[in-house]
Each structure stands twice: as structure tokens, then as C-alpha cells.
Give the backbone structure.
Amino acid sequence: MEGSTTSPTPPGNQLVTEDLDQGVIIHFCPSFLSADEATALFEHIVAAVAWEQSEMTLPDGSKARLPRLQGWMSTENKKVSTLYQKSPPTVWTEPVLKVKSAIEAALGKRCTFDYVLINLYRDGEDSIGFHIDDEARGVNETYGPKNIVASLSLGETRTFVLRHSRKKRLQRRYALTPGSLIVMDGTTQEFWRHGVPKEPEVKGPRINLTFRVS
């Protein structure tokens, strides 16, 4: 598997698992939610979440605003030290809890997600660079393994790219359509980086919910 390749498209709402070697596991479903369900959840999230444009610290010590808006949901007074957000979480809402439970069930209830980070890409100029989720390692004794990160997409279709950390020509590209679900599992964070590049031709917003274990 050399160079850039596009992921296979599974039929219907089936969750298909790919083993990318070295214990790197990706689960993908292009239609985990129906079109109507995805639209309804998008509208709910836009209204329910307290959005902010967080700051990050650059290698030279300067500050820059993230090129996207963010929010998060969890239980009241939950604290997650690795988040950029300064605001407390929006308390879980019933529509989001319903989706969370469905994803946990699809993954065989191997973990219980205790928070969800939510990104709002306002248009194709918003993006996230290649990175690893350093916090997605180890096991939470209450909620289970942290390496399982489930991302549900709503709104405009954007391209999600996985790139090998050393062999940068080795890539996987996924078109994340509204209602699609992609899950990074196994040793993904050890060997692959991921990102959502700019796509100037995309004019509308996209939301992704990344369900996680703290």
C-alpha cells in the first residue's frame, strides 16, 4: 500500500473494519445516520453548543486562533486537561446521548465515551493540520480504552486524510459525508497522523463530533 489511496465504500450502514498493519485499525461507515437524522442533529448541535474559537500555542511560543470553532459536551463540571476550551462543557443532550449509545453499541460496547469534542468548520477555509491525539492512549479504569476515537460528520462533505507518520507518501483518504462515522482504533495514534485540509470550493459548514474517553 504505497502512495495515496481512497478508502473502500461499504454497502448501506455497515461498519467496515480496515487493518492498516502494525495494529492500526480503522472502522468506517458512510451512512451511520440517515440524511434526515444527520440534518436534524446538525441543527440541534448548532443551537445547543457554546461555540468558541480557541487559541493554540505555536512552537515559537506565540498564540494563534484555531481555524475552526469548537465546543464540547459531557457531564456537568467535567474537566479534561488536554482541551483548548476554557469554557465548561455543554451538558449532554438527549439527541447526542442517543447517538453516543448507538456508536458504543456498534463498537461492541468496548468503551463508554465520557465526553465529545465538537468542531465546526465554517467553510472550506477552516481546517485542522496533521496531528496525533496524544491523549488517546492508555485505559480509563471506569470508561475503558482511550485509543478508540469515534468521529461522526454532519453538514458539508469534507476529506479526512490519514498519513503515515514516517512514510508520508502513504495515505488514506475518506470522504466524510453527512451521517458518516469513522473510528480510529488500535495503534492508529502511534503510527499515523490525521487531518482535514482546506478545501476552498466547499462553501458550507461541517460539524464533526469526536467521541472520546478521558
